[in-house]
Amino acid sequence: MDSLWKSIKLVLANPRVDSAKKLPSGDILVISTDTETVKVIKNISGKDGLEVLEEGNKKPKVKIKNIPSEYSAEFITNSIIEQNQNLEIESMNDVKPVYKCGPRNRDVVDWMMEVSPTIYNAILNKCTFIGLMSNFPRPYVTASHCRRCLALDHITKNCTNDLTCHHCAEAGHESSKCQRKNEEPVCSHCGDRHRTMSKDCRIWAQRIQITDRNLHPPSYE
């Protein structure tokens, strides 16, 4: 890790790295929300024996809101393909409902869908027919994070840390058992008085911006 740090410092006097972690494989996972730092890290690949591999872009995501709860993922996919032939969808993989989100136990739910770049440009904010309703898909952006300990350098399934409370940001208990529920929440990332991963968190907002740029570049053409 020292050689990586020295290589970065040779180019950028004051790099901004959110986290750096040595993985069991010996690789180093580096997360930075600073554009200049990311640029420098990319450019040191091949120097001093270092090889930099950037996480590949994933498919763009959209959210469809207020979908009848009885609509299955398969039904949504088939409906979009059959009822919106102007989209010229070539494969079922071009439209893939992944999971439900938003409030639970309602007659309607929200869905997050992965779509191909071409379909993303064609479907975004456009009237899309799904079964007995129409919808206007919106961009869906979130950054990878751990829902167990709230860290930003790994995802939940790889977590070996203690559970962290979503309300007070202290380790060792879940939010439903928090003794500080009558107090204002605390963000585990910036320490301010708001919930972790709130839109008011500057660190989380930076992560979302970076993810949005990676997933939704200005043009896919």
Automatic annotation (TrEMBL):
GO terms for molecular function: nucleic acid binding; zinc ion binding. SUPFAM superfamilies: Retrovirus zinc finger-like domains. It comes from Aphis craccivora (Cowpea aphid). InterPro entries: Znf_CCHC_sf. This is CCHC-type domain-containing protein.
